[in-house]
Amino acid sequence: MSPTIIECKNVTRIFNPGENEVRALAGVSFKIEKGEYVSIMGKSGSGKSTLLNTLGLLDNLTSGQYILNGNDVSNYSEKKLTKTRLKSFGFIFQSFNLMNNITCLKNVELPMLYAGINGQERKKRALELMDKMQILDQANKKPMTLSGGQRQRVAIARALANSPDVIFADEPTGALDSTTTKNILNLLKELHLSGNTIVVVTHDIGVAKSADRIITIKDGLIESDVMNL
Ligand SMILES: Nc1ncnc2c1ncn2[C@@H]1O[C@H](COP(=O)(O)OP(=O)(O)O)[C@@H](O)[C@H]1O
Ligand SMILES: [Mg+2]
Fold first, then answer.
1. Which of these, 53, 119, 180, 186, could form a disulfide with 58 (CB 3.0-4.6 Å)?
2. Ligand 1 and 46: CB distance under 6 A
3. Which domains does the chain have, with CATH numbers?
4. For residue 44, how far is its CA from the centre of ligand 2 (angstroms)?
5. Looking at residue 97, what is its pLDDT?
6. How far apart are CA 100 and CA 115, in angstroms?
């Protein structure tokens, strides 16, 4: 068995506590091992993004425990949270979330810039990653001039920049056509086969099925958790 990277124990996330509160996560418990490729599936509003944001340390949980690499994140300082997000996690979003006023190359370099890596090394690694994602020829263009699929490849290269422990993707193919979706899913599969731990959130069963394990959530609770091999 591989070491556990992520463990949630009865995690809740309640928005607007009080009369009109929303229990986006109503008590979820599960573990993810190093190297797993997991999808989290559920209808719109079921709590998928909230769960992903919690796992990615982009949002705080309300109660329960989140154990990351054996450490309870509630003990993390703000500084440690930021450092973990930057160095241990890579993020891929439906709308790519690229900076449109800088080149694709600079977008891929950005996490390394924040991590304090020198300019020469940044550029070298960013170009390598763009080559791997087959978008090297787009390096000096601004994101807006690229197709959706190309932009998502830039975002994946950026997610890989600091060699993260976990790649989190929230509806990564939600803005793409079916052919491009297939290509991006193949890419994620390749990344998984080369050892990356990947967590993908989606409402699309077709996307969910590309993972080795499917966790289904409904109303903020885990409904099922099955292997898909
Ligand atoms: N910042 C927020 N404030 C209030 N309610 C929120 C917030 N974010 C999400 N919610 C609510 O929490 C529930 C789960 O949302 P979300 O995690 O975005 O679902 P999904 O990603 O599965 O569509 C929904 O009812 C949503 O309206
Ligand atoms: Mg969502």
1. 53
2. yes
3. 37-57+75-227 (3.40.50.300)
4. 7
5. 97
6. 21
Give the helix, strand, coil percentages of the chain, each rounded to 5.
Answer: 40, 30, 35
* DSSP letter assigned to residue 59: S
Give tens-digit pLDDT for 186-211. 999 999 999 999 999 999 999 999 99
Amino acid, single-letter form, for residue 213: R
Q: Measured from the CB, is residue 48 less than 6 Å from ligand 1?
A: yes
Closest approach atom of ligand 1 to CA 220:
14
Query: Element (H or E) spanning 84, and its range?
Result: helix 78-88
Rounded-to-integer distance, Cα 143 and Cα 153, Å = 11
| Any atom of ligand 1 within 6 Å of the Cβ of 50 | yes
Place of tokens 């999808």: 39
Helix (H) or strand (E) run with residue 105 in it: helix 104-114
Predicted model pTM: 0.97
Structure-token pair, residue 106: 């600079």
Lookup: tokens for 13: 């996330």
Please classify residue 83 by burial: count the beta carbons closer than 10 Å to its beta carbon, then call 0-12 exposed, 13-18 middle and 19+ buried. Answer: middle
Nearest ligand for residue 50 CA: 1
For residue 19, give the DSSP letter: T
Buried b (16+ CB within 10 A) or exposed e, 144-159: eebebbbbbbbbbbbb
Alpha-carbon distances of 139 from 46, 161, 189, rounded to whole Å: 37, 14, 24
